[in-house]
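>> received
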Amino acid sequence: MLQELLPSLIKWRSEVKPLFSFATQVSIDLAEDKILMQMMLKAGFRHIFVGIETSEEKSLLECGKTQNLKGDLMVSVKELHAAGFMISGGFIIGFDSDSPAVFQKQRDFIQQSGIVIATINLLKAPIGTELYKRMKLENRLLDSLNFNENMINLVPEMDIEILYEIIVI
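>> returned
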């Protein structure tokens, strides 16, 4: 489908010359595909949301985000910027392997990478996910899933008071 969509959008853009661009969500491994990046840019995609989650290898393994382990995250983000994309990055805190040091590491990564919009969310265990099943098995589920970004629905390994204290800042 992508093989049809992007060429059609490129053709349409060249004919209509719209005054707007598109936004989409991609994985970090887009940085490895120079041809796809160029086609997306020609089709008018400028703003991309990338689920970075964390720069901590243990946490990426924990959440199964293996595509973020293939290369250097910082280099990949900078390659996407250099290609011409504006990046919004999604980050998560509250993984079992997170320590209070993760907060400064997240800040440093965001600032050094040049990500222009960063959303930092508390880990959630939505019903039906592997994380939900594991938390239920470990008797670590709290109330039902709350979509309030400042709430968590599981008992984290990190002291919850430290987690909430830091996320409010």
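>> The domain at 21-168 is CATH 3.30.750 (Transcription Regulator spoIIAA).
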